[in-house]
UniProtKB/TrEMBL annotation:
Domain spans labelled RRM: 34-107, 132-210, 397-486
Domain of life: Eukaryota
GO MF term (any one): RNA binding
Compartment annotation: Nucleus
GO cellular component: catalytic step 2 spliceosome; precatalytic spliceosome
Family statement drawn from the similarity comment of this UniProt entry: Belongs to the RRM half pint family.
SMART domains, sorted: RRM (SM00360), RRM_1 (SM00361)
Any single Pfam family the record assigns to this protein: RRM_1
Name this polypeptide is given: RRM domain-containing protein
Keyword annotations of the record: mRNA processing, mRNA splicing, Nucleus, RNA-binding
GO biological process: alternative mRNA splicing, via spliceosome; mRNA splice site recognition; regulation of alternative mRNA splicing, via spliceosome
Length: 496
């Protein structure tokens, strides 16, 4: 029973850890859904301009702009993180291509460094389709839930209307959720009320992409009290033991007849002894106890019988003692091998479970930012690892060539010529020729510069191409070659 309780407790612990890991991955996916990438930002714009442009879709948690330490200017892109995924989704749908600071900004999608994040995001969005919920943002601060409900009731019956509670009573945070009874009502509300002027502010309305209470985070209930866990494990082990006893009883009846026949064949002397001596056995064959209990142990070492000796009744009585005189320790002796095998099997299973749990705990890497910050490196190679990490370069497989050609030199054969030239340094995946205007004039090409992007398969190839091409003359022009930001290139942002 003690071993069974330990096994049940271990299974409960593993199940709890798996549930916690699933909840954590879901929470991490929701955080990723709150982020958007904004590219092609004018160098004249600052963080406050980005915040002002993206705040109508919901409360912004943070804006991260990448700055160049040499020029003291940002690199033309930023990551905007909202408090809820619906705000990020609306920004993706309504801000891509919008003119901001003289440039059409690019809002192309959310970055993801989490393995298999998309599958979790798809699962969350599929679950949200079960609810006819819509998301409403940019709500005037003086409007109440009743005001919003009265406006949106025109499209159909409303189940719930909830605005996000602000820091002070009777104040909301400018956004909320409305759940309709029917799906068609939600669709009509989105198409009719998006960008509707309500109280001097344009509403932003879209479909909810997360189920209710999705942002409550990982379960904080953690472990149940130790006493409750042990009691639950004991009850479970008791039920399992009762099931095992019942199963063994049914199996024992089926094995009894086969074991009885086998034991009788192994010990023929039990039947031959009375026949040889001409004496009727005192115990009928039908009443002989099952083999493996007691009598076979007594018959395996009988008292020697000398042929031709008279008065053999005492010898026979000594050879076959009455069943009532059997020692209880002898009753369990033949069963010991079976019990030992079962115990050994349970011990092996428990050992495997412990090794698996220990391995899982040891191999678990810190997932949250706080855990990664508090992670320590021990051992003699600690200093080497830290220095190696500090000296690590940002990996990029893209080389940008500036001032290589002018607008008038761009033709159909230019791309092929550049690819042939750069193939000397490695395998070229693609070449992109990008014309960037420096003013808003449409017809004037005098202020247009040409950027050439060459993507290799390896970073070492890109570095070799940069070192060889930088400072060379091409058609009377001094070429400037350098590594281009991989994140910008992957998002098709060539404005850097």
């Amino acid at each position: 029973m003690e071993q069974s309780i330990k096994m049940v407790l271990m299974k409960q612990t593993l199940a709890h850890q798996q549930q916690q890991a699933k909840s954590f991955h879901r929470h991490q996916a929701l955080i990723l859904m709150c982020r958007v990438y904004v590219g092609s930002i004018s160098f004249e714009l600052k963080e406050d301009s980005i915040k002002q442009a993206f705040s109508p879709f919901g409360c912004i948690k943070s804006i991260n702009m990448s700055w160049d330490p040499i020029t003291q200017k940002h690199k033309g892109f930023a990551f905007v993180e909202y408090e809820i995924p619906e705000a990020a989704q609306l920004a993706l749908e309504q801000m891509n291509g919008v003119m901001l600071g003289g440039r059409n900004i690019k809002v192309v999608g959310r970055p993801s460094n989490m393995p298999q994040a998309q599958s979790v995001i798809d699962e969350i969005q599929e679950e949200a389709k079960q609810y006819n919920r819509i998301y409403v943002a940019s709500i005037h601060p003086d409007l109440t839930e009743d005001d919003i409900k009265s406006v949106f009731e025109a499209f159909g019956p409303i189940r719930t209307c909830k605005l996000a509670q602000g820091s002070t009573p009777n104040r909301h945070r400018g956004y909320g959720f409305i759940e309709y009874e029917g799906r068609q009502a939600a669709i009509e509300a989105i198409s009719s009320m998006n960008l509707f002027d309500l109280g001097g502010q344009y509403l932003r309305v879209g479909r909810a992409i997360t189920p209710p209470n999705a942002l409550h985070g990982p379960s904080s209930s953690s472990h149940m009290p130790t006493a409750a866990a042990v009691a639950a494990a004991a009850a479970t082990a008791k039920i399992q033991a009762m099931d095992a006893v019942a199963t063994n009883a049914v199996l024992g009846l089926s094995k009894l007849s086969s074991q009885l026949g086998a034991q009788t064949a192994v010990l023929p002397g039990l039947q031959q002894l009375p026949t040889t001596l001409g004496i009727t056995p005192a115990v009928p064959a039908a009443t002989i106890p099952p083999p493996g209990i007691a009598i076979p142990q007594q018959i395996r070492a009988p008292v020697p019988i000398i042929p031709g000796t008279t008065g053999l009744s005492p010898v026979i009585q000594q050879a076959i003692p009455p069943p009532t005189l059997i020692n209880p320790t002898q009753l369990a002796a033949p069963v010991i091998p079976t019990v030992t095998a079962d115990a050994q099997k349970r011990a092996d299973q428990q050992k495997k479970q412990e090794e698996l749990q220990k391995k899982l705990l040891e191999e678990t890497e810190p997932q949250t930012l706080q855990q990664q910050e508090n992670m320590s490196i021990k051992g003699q190679s600690a200093r080497h690892l830290v220095m190696q990490k500090l000296m690590r370069k940002t990996e990029s497989r893209v080389v940008i060539l500036r001032n290589m050609v002018g607008v008038e030199d761009v033709d159909d054969s230019l791309q092929e010529e550049i690819q042939d030239e750069c193939s000397k340094f490695g395998v070229v995946e693609r070449v992109i020729i990008y014309k960037e205007k420096q003013s808003d004039s449409v017809d004037d090409d005098s202020d247009t510069i040409v950027k050439i992007f060459v993507e290799f398969t390896q970073m070492s190839e890109a570095e070799q191409a940069r070192d060889s091409l930088n400072g060379r003359f091409f058609g009377g022009r001094l070429v400037k070659a350098e590594l281009y930001d991989q994140a910008l290139f992957d998002h098709s942002d060539f404005s850097g």
